Amino acid sequence: IDLMNDGDLVFSIRNVERRHVQMQKLKSCQNLLNHVPSAAAACDTEANIKVVNSALAKLLGYAKAEDLNDKPFSLVWKEAGSTDAIQRVLSGTQWRETVQVVNASGMRIQLTLSLAPELDIRRKVIGFLAAFSPAAVVALGGPASKGV
Q1: What is the model's pTM?
Q2: CA 99, 114, 55: angle at the middle one, nearest 5?
């Protein structure tokens, strides 16, 4: 770079230790997400999947969690009202309900889905988090539900 005289040089020295620490934290978070037995995903504001843990990939019948990255969340959950629920979450509300998801072979699975907004450091919504858990068994009428 020419500064005041021809042949002047500019050097920059950078400490990358902070970057390595942050990368290790991110790697640890991904490892933790994959270790948790509950199925989970993080999606952007367009409802596209950014990150999936291995539990969700396995539940849905995919070989690798990465197979679901950049796919629409509607691939997993496309019941009536799903778009409205996601929009409420993207406006800042948490949401939880028993839903039916579809796995890779087209089989429907009943699960409890919890959605929460994902916030950046300025508390701005940048997407949503989805966690799936087994749906509670509910008795539907008949003598067993009346204690007989």
Answers
A1: 0.74
A2: 85
